[in-house]
Design goal:
Blueprint lengths: L1 H8 L19 H5 L3 H12 L17 H6 L1 H9 L23 H12 L27 E4 L11 E9 L6 E9 L6 E9 L4 H8 L7 E2 L13 E6 L6 E2 L4 E5 L4 E9 L11 E7 L4 E8 L17 E10 L4 E9 L4 E8 L6 E6 L10 E9 L4 E9 L18 E7 L2
Parallel strand pairs: 8-11
Antiparallel strand pairs: 1-10, 2-5, 2-9, 3-7, 3-8, 3-10, 4-6, 4-9, 11-18, 12-17, 13-16, 13-18, 14-15, 14-17
Helix pairs in contact: 3-6, 5-6
Bound molecules: heme C.
The site of heme C (HEC) has 23 residues, from helix 5.
Amino acid sequence: MWMIALFLACGAPAAPSDDDPVAVDDTSPAVVDAPTWHQDVRPIIETRCVSCHQTGGIGLFPLTEYDAVHAVRDAIADAVGSGRMPPWGAAPGCNTYAGDLSMPADEIETILAWAEADGPEGDPTASVPGTPANTQTALSRVDLTLSLPEVYTPQVEPDDYRCFAIPWPYTERVYVTGFRVNPGDPRVVHHVIAYVAGAQYAETIAQVEAEDELPGFACYGGPVVVPQEDAEWLGAWAPGDETGDFPEGLGIRMNPGEYVILQVHYNTEVAGALPDQTTMDLSIAESVERSAWLQPYTNPVWLYGVGMDIPAGESGVTHSFSYPFPGDYLFWAVFGHMHTLGRSLKLTIGDGADANCLLNIPAWDFDWQRTYRLAEPQLIREDEELHLDCVWDNPTDQDVAWGDGTGDEMCLGVLLMTDP
Ligand code: HEC
């Protein structure tokens, strides 16, 4: 909202109104200067928004026609001005990422000015189309499809975290070289994380599955059956995420007898509790150039309730962790994880002036967790430290610490790594 306020303070043209003859005069500079749909706004919306906001898309309402966009112009200005849309938490100036969705400041200003001027249509005969981003996730081959064992209808409103343990079908060691998540009903599937659990967790899985009659088991915050720090990750997906093939030559090893645990976060706020059967397509190789792994990274003592206190009523509570790496490694992708009290999260190699920033999320949003794939792999050398910084605001009257529950918090990085 502050950007809108700023704009008003700088003297935006007044919105034309029926009883104001000056404002409807087409030659008045105010009206001529305001951006129009056909000339200025259409190309931005078509490029930045319609890949999700189209009929049948995950964006829930289409932004494809002037009338539809005009009708929600204030909501658009608010979502864009506050940075909620397009959903992309990584701040500029830190690193460069594949499939960056972020919006340049001049485009944000154009949208705000247009909404402020009541959304003029402009000249349809000189309309400028945009170039929608290709969000078709490019998975070059599908060798295996994992599916929820049966249809599941979310039970907890508005947020239901459900895990489904799927036995890994291969009897030899293989490598996953890419994946694509197909949300069964995009209106309710908010994010999906695929964890790997070893064969030794079979009994625990059977126990939690028996806790209710429904498919899968409840699992807020992590895979539950495997402690977060032991959980291996296969991948994470949020709407609009760039999944598909892993970087060339990379694969994540899977062993016979393991389980893939699909954690699906259902949000029923907008469309209600709709049935879903999400699937995940995978490409598989018998061997790869580089064996990759997803490395969870956090302070081990926090997991035991030490040192990550977030006292009741305090804001700006900061906890940091750094650790010298035991060798040279390459980072290919980064993922950050906190719960709902999180304000910001940062991961850097080294600190101070010559730090190499991997990920900076200044306005943490629990609803939009995604993997940020680095445009170029980043090298960490032996003895260099990886710094993780998390900041929380705790407006509740409860002291908060590390934990799996809704009221608990986490501060976790996950890195897709290989040897150099
Ligand atoms: C990656 C997919 C994606 C893109 C790109 C995207 N949206 Fe959205 N948008 C969504 C989803 C999903 C929702 C549903 C609300 C939610 O889950 O946060 C949403 C909700 C909204 C809302 C209503 C909720 C709110 O936060 O105000 C507005 C307005 C909106 N989008 C505008 C836009 C505009 C304008 C753009 C382009 C500048 C855009 N969106 C780009 C996926 C997207």
